[in-house]
Amino acid sequence: MLTTGVMPTTEIISTAESSSSIPHSSPSQAKTALRRELKRRRRALSPREQRAATAQLCRRLRTLPELLRARRVSLYLPMGGEIDPQPLLHWLYRRGVSVYLPVLRPFSANSLWFVAYRPGTPMVKNRFGIPEPAAAFSARRQNRLPAWALDALIVPLVGFDANANRMGMGGGFYDRTLAFMRYRRPAPALIGVAHACQQVAHLPVEPWDIPLTAIATDAATVRPQKR
Ligand SMILES: Nc1nc2c(c(=O)[nH]1)N(C=O)[C@@H](CNc1ccc(C(=O)N[C@@H](CCC(=O)O)C(=O)O)cc1)CN2
Ligand SMILES: Nc1ncnc2c1ncn2[C@@H]1O[C@H](COP(=O)(O)OP(=O)(O)OP(=O)(O)O)[C@@H](O)[C@H]1O
User: Fold this and answer.
1) Which atom from ligand 1 is nearest to the alpha carbon of 43?
2) Which of 103, 120, 156, 165 reaches 20 to 30 Å from 200, CA-CA?
3) What is the domain class of 3-18+32-222 according to CATH?
4) Which residues are CB-neighbours of 36 under 8 A, at least 6 positions away?
5) Among 30, 8, 56, residue whose Cα is nearest residue 197
6) 116 bridge partner residues
7) Which residues does substrate bind (predicted)?
8) pLDDT lower than 70: segments of the chain
9) This prediction's pTM
10) 54-85 in b/e burial notation, b at 16+ Cβ within 10 A?
């Protein structure tokens, strides 16, 4: 359901590109307005609503087969009202799963590395103010993995729809990092997570979008219909 009133859905859909090349155009006004509205919605949740949503989300994530069989998992540290996957950490550590965080890759615009996150990992804030493993720690090869070596990624979403299409922060970080998934198998499971209130009726599918395996919220699990 598109309850934002920011833009008619048809206008949002009409911004989808049909070409297979990856244009470096600025995002459409409709997409920018929708992103702003969805970020406002999640920031508007009270601390109590945030805590309840996080607990429900993590309960749901613990039942997903993709996470039950994963040995190497990435998650993220939340900002700006994002739903918090951190209660999952103890469950993962207890089961001997290796946990990784996304780190902004140096010398490679808008793409990510995944760096080991365990007790004692030295942390700094990145340019967006999000804590991430410190540069010297991330620089050591034994502390990091490329995305293809993970079994599952928990991916933060700004918006999603009933067909598990996603919208992120707009930097193209995850799409660039996961672009290999178009040709390389096996590929990690991609589990998008968001608050239920971040669902909209339809999102445009961009040529560079990498499809998610599933989306989990505090209220539901959404899987893409057969393509
Ligand atoms: N928690 C978290 N970590 C993450 C991501 C994310 O979406 N959430 N990312 C997913 O790609 C990557 C970082 N990408 C980002 C892309 C854009 C902005 C950004 O535009 N920030 C605004 C303020 C935030 C807001 O508008 O709410 C800014 O710095 O001005 C932040 C992170 C890796 N780590
Ligand atoms: N594989 C890629 N190679 C080059 N540019 C890319 C690639 N994927 C996405 N981009 C660029 O990134 C920009 C942001 O894309 P989009 O608006 O879809 O971000 P998003 O999916 O919301 O962000 P994120 O992936 O960080 O969650 C677009 O301008 C797009 O051209």
Assistant:
1) 27
2) 103
3) alpha beta
4) 6
5) 56
6) 100
7) 77, 82
8) 1-27, 226-227
9) 0.89
10) bebbbebbeebebbeebebbbbbbbeebbbbb
